[in-house]
Amino acid sequence: MKRESGNRNSSIWLIGDSSPPSWEDYLDEPLDAKHPARHNIWTPIIDRIQRQVFISDQRRVDDSQLYVRNAVHNQKDKPDYGTTEWCPKLLAEADDFGKLLKKHKPPLVFTFGAFAFEFARRSISKGPNRRQSYWDTKKLGAEFGQRVENFNPQKINIFPLLHVSIARGHFLKSHKNFTGEDNGNYFYFVAEKIGHLLLKHKCTLNIWIEP
User: Fold this and answer.
1) Pairing mode of beta strands 108-112, 12-16
2) In terms of pTM, does the model score above 0.70?
3) What pairing do the DSSP bridges indicate for beta strands 108-112 and 67-70?
């Protein structure tokens, strides 16, 4: 599996967790479209965004040039779930990723899951270091909401999204916790917020398919 795919100059970056160990020899790239994980965690969001921006402004996001990578390539390089201490190798990877972010300055960085979010946070030194277990679905949802409110298209904005928790046994709880609504739909909630941002800043974001 390649370490990355897409265009580093894209305004939209997708950051996954790590390569699936049982399938990395059979897949081409991170969040490979042949693997169900991508369609469990991203396809429902981008489909809803496309619907919203088209109905509102006859636009469509060019999702063919997205930059995609995993926080780490090997799942074994992730820290223990409950520790804030990271090994030198992982800290170096986060530092390298931070340099990449600062070089290209993507305004929209979407991270999938607690580890990918913490990895991206640390890479640009935003806030105190947290253990992976700190970022439950409620805290990720609250963080997402704050970052939507504080969005600046001239800066790097990291948005936490859910990973496999939205597709496993406690998925209904994940919908509720992230959205803060008893009958909330995480996919609709996230897509609506992101779609609104894209339309609000449509003239400054280089993300649209040109006719």
Assistant:
1) parallel
2) yes
3) unpaired
Query: Cα–Cα distances in Å, from 115 out to 29, 71, 88?
Result: 19, 8, 16
Provide DSSP, 81-146: TT-----HHHHHHHHHHHHHHHHH--SEEEEESHHHHHHHHHHTT-SS---GGG--HHHHHHHHHH
Looking at the chain, the whole-number percentage of residues with pLDDT higher than 70 is: 100
* Cβ within 8 Å of residue 31, ≥6 positions away: 14, 16, 37, 38, 42, 68, 70, 112
Q: Kindly list the strands in the beta sheet with 67-70, ordered across the sheet, starting from the edge strand earlier in the chain.
A: 4-5, 67-70, 12-16, 108-112, 158-161
For 134-179, the pLDDT digits (tens) are 999 999 999 999 999 999 999 999 999 999 777 777 899 999 999 9
The amino acid that residue 49 corresponds to is I
